Amino acid sequence: MKFLFQMDDPKKINISEDSTYMIIKESLNRGIECFYNDPNWVYADINRKNKIKSHIFRIFLKDNGTLTYDIKNKINVDLENFSAIFIRQDPPYDMKYISNTYLLEKLKKPMVINNPSELRNFPEKHIMMNFPDLTPSTIISSDVEVLIKFIEKNNEVILKPAYGNGGLGIVKVDASKRNLTNFLSKYINQFSNNPIIAQRFLKNYIRGDKRVILINGNVKGSVLRVPKKNSIKSNFHAGGSAVKTSLNKKEKLICQKIKNFLINKKLYFVGIDIIDGFLTEINITSPTGIQEINRLDGVNIEKSIINFVLKSLK
Ligand SMILES: Nc1ncnc2c1ncn2[C@@H]1O[C@H](COP(=O)(O)OP(=O)(O)O)[C@@H](O)[C@H]1O
Ligand SMILES: [Mg+2]
Question: Which contacts (CB < 8 Å, 24+ apart) does range 167-176 have?
Answer without folding.
Answer: 167/233, 167/234, 167/235, 167/237, 167/238, 170/232, 170/233, 171/232, 172/201, 172/232, 175/151
